[in-house]
Amino acid sequence: MSVFADITAIRLIRNKLIKMRLEKHSRAWTEIKSNDSWAIFKIMGEFVNGYEKLSRIGPCVSIFGSARTKPNEKYYKLAEEVAKKIVEHGYGIITGGGPGIMEAGNKGAHIAGGTSVGLNIELPFEQHDNPYIDPDKVLDFDYFFVRKVMFVKYSQGFVVMPGGFGTLDELFEAITLIQTNKIEKFPLILVGTEFWKGLLEWIKQTLLDTFGNISPNDMNLVHLVDTPEEVIEILDNFYKEYGLSPNF
To answer: Per the CB 3.0–4.6 Å rule, which of 15, 65, 84, 106 could disulfide with 163?
Structure first.
């Protein structure tokens, strides 16, 4: 009888522990659902604030690239020159608002006297506002996806300098949206042949030629250049044919 009593007691304890664990998970899941519901209002607020401010800035080009690029490096200096040229041709500059290439883009716009916008994201490292953003054109975001919408909607072109995963993320999202006709086509310009050549070769040889996962025309969605003058030529040629407007 003692053996059976022990087994029964063990089963009761086990069942009680399982019940307690399920109740704990149920409470936690309910709290998550409640928090998600309230988060909707914060997300809406970020969209409203972004739309309100960016709808008034006029035509801009976004510059992307690594936050880790130093001011003495060539791509920092090149991004600054590209931004100056873009401003001289009538566009403002939008960046992610942080250091590195983003700072260079805002600095070039600031020096040239043009619109300088920063769409900052709250991160545990790397990110802080750079000092070259117009004071009334700093926007702070908690949500990457809201910030991405702002870049895509209000940019008349993407100039993509060498960068890391965040830079690649912005590039490939824009390519995907254009390829699938979810937004209007606009110039996607990669700057730096030495940096981008290998990626473009892999896309052509692996995605297109070997596996057939993209169409031949998809290779024409991006331009590869090395100078500010080439960036301007692509922008000017495109907007001789198409009007300036938000992309959706």
So the answer is: 65
